[in-house]
Design brief:
5 helices, 88 residues, globular, mainly alpha, 0% strand
């Protein structure tokens, strides 16, 4: 089951063009942890981390279902913006 979460997390990262740092920031973990999960196949066992991944994926699903007619992206809906120091 955690492996399914990791596969979905990888899809979101690629589709939205997010960096490991951005995903790690959203999850509250270091970017190297995200790298290990997505590239090396390691699976987190911590319940709080798995819960954070579920919440992140839930935000993605919600943002996708609520895409505005203006064409806002997931990145705009969750607040990944240059004001927070992230380049688009």
């Amino acid at each position: 089951m955690p492996q399914d979460r990791i596969a979905k997390l990888k899809q979101v990262k690629i589709k939205e063009g997010l960096s490991y740092e951005q995903v790690g920031f959203e999850l509250g973990v270091h970017s190297m942890s995200v790298y290990r999960w997505l590239q090396k196949g390691a699976v987190p066992r911590s319940r709080p981390i798995l819960r954070a991944i579920d919440q992140f994926l839930g935000k993605y699903d919600l943002a996708r279902s609520r895409k505005s007619p203006k064409g806002e992206t997931f990145r705009e809906l969750v607040g990944a913006s240059p004001e927070k120091g992230w380049k688009q």
